[in-house]
Amino acid sequence: MSHHLPSASRAAVVTVALMAIATLSGTADAAPVPATATASDLAPEVLTALQRDTGLNPDAARARLAADKTASDTGSTLRKRMPSTFGGAWINEGKLVVGVTDTKSADAVRAAGGQARLVWRTEGQLDAVKSKLDANATAAPKTVPGWFVDPASNSVVVKSRPSDFRAAYSFAAASGADMTAVRVEASEESPRPLIDVIGGNAYYIGSGTRCSVGFSVNGGFVTAGHCGTTGASTTQPSGTFRGSSFPGNDYAWVQVAAGNTPRGLVNNYSNGTVAVAGSQDAAIGATVCRSGSTTGWHCGTIRARNSSVSYPQGTVSGLIQTNVCAEPGDSGGSLLAGSQAQGVTSGGSGNCSSGGTTYFQPVNEILQTYGLTLVTGGGGPGPGTCQNPQNTYNGSLTSNQSAYQPNGGSYTSNASGAHVGCLNAPAGTDFDLYLEKRNGSTWTVVAKSDSPQNVENINYNGTAGTYRYRVHAYSGSGSYTLGVSKP
Question: Where is the signal peptide (predicted)?
């Protein structure tokens, strides 16, 4: 049965997004999603910076970060449950808002504790519109600094200098995009790679160009791709770029030489550090903080994901867009949500006096591309990588089945440190990975990776105890491989 938007909502959507009336239908699982997130992983340095930049008191800052985590987890779960009707999720004034294309899905959102908004297009349809623009990125005029999917307006926003909206519309139309889903927005941005920056600790490339360590990984660190090409040498710490991509992407990883020890820490520029606990994605609207040597430690919110940005050197796609300020000298630096790694500084516009927009390359994409694992908890190198795990387990599942590893049982860790799980399932399937820890007679999920893909990675900083992984075939069937490393 199809459901239509009420007349008031219809008028609002047509005004904002210039969309034609359409009839959409879909189904959704109406079971509630438990909201169990806490603020237990918050670092004092994150709270201090958040209070400074937002004016919140300590209790309000803790409550906000805990609410952001709960909303992000709930939004991710709803995306999995209703892929054919999910129109995107975002946080508005501390509340999770989810766009859906039918009333049954709206009921499921409300049952999960979120606010439902009826929209015309699904997240997948909006992503397809944006992909058209990405494919034509080389034709973007200089007056178009970027474009992104905006779930709140259920449209794809193309940024344009106010002096030449016509060029922005022409670019979008020439890309073959559905113009009823495109909205042009005035922007004075002039994004550029923040090539002179440090974001954690400084390192130098070649003859003295300075960039920053993003996050430590086994054997080195990840950073921005525009900082150096594959094979380039670094000093302080000394190392070599083993992989780099820019433009298109903006990521790289540097393998450090003997004597340099990666640590799971980020410089907070207040005579301290923040320990990195993992890399779980935060939702649009979530609070984040950035570290960089030019401007120090600053906080703000995520404004968009899957954002494309036109730099003078070419377009970079799939970036996190934020209102956190940055300046030249901050490139490659760390973006955190609480203690969860989000991305490395790519570029932006504005400054930390008047404010600005800064873009970040998502860290999980870098880890998956190069088969790397984060160093977490402030300790030394973690136990292994996705390319070289300590143990490997194989199995086979049909759709909606689950299996526990290792071999139907569990494992015990006698020390604190990183628990790394790397799942590979057949192409075209959607398998998810959960890490559970035993608490008395019950098991509690302490980390999860549940993207709509066939590859999932978990990097969790845990205390001593008994753990197990659950592999779940959300859709599709076939054989999988799970690589596992423990402290």
Answer: 1-30
